[in-house]
Fold this protein.
Amino acid sequence: MKALKWLSVVLLLGASLVLAQGNLDVSSPAISALKRSMQERHAQLAPLYDSGALGQTTDGGVAVRDASAVPLAQRAQATALVAAENADRSALYREIARANGHPEWEADVRRTFAGRWAERARAGWWIQQDGNWVRK
Amino acid sequence: MPLLVRTGLAIAVMSGVAACVTINIYFPAAAAEKAADKIIDEVWQASPPEKKEAVPDRGGEK
């Protein structure tokens, strides 16, 4: 009888831990701050995605795809936007991994996001696939 | 209950818990996709909508 009690304790503990492991926490203050920063920048990035000047890369970032789509006077600004966005995205992947107690997950988080950015990209935007640019 | 049985059960419980914790080292891919979608929604929601006029029905967009 007592053994049965023990067994149920083991099973309950196991069940709760299994449930706990299927989640990913993305609510840390650092993550919220990065989201806000990226949200604000998106207003400037969206027209560049639309024009095909920038695209989503295979590694979960953005890159200049066609600089000629940007007027010469604004190219430096576009390059700066790309650098800032990539810095935020990298920090985001790092922070999500860290917030969940697994800094070693950073590459997995990046890979997951890369797939989702590409999948969610709007019609007409460019995404990188196997090194080639593809228009959605 | 004899001490030996008790000790055995205690070890079983601890190894059971340890096994469950070990599962936790695997990256939760499905949860990560959901989390990514949520963040992408939030970041990209502020997209300027003026382009939509040209394509009134965006139901087929992917």
The two ends of chain A are 63 Å apart (CA to CA). The mean pLDDT of chain A is 92.
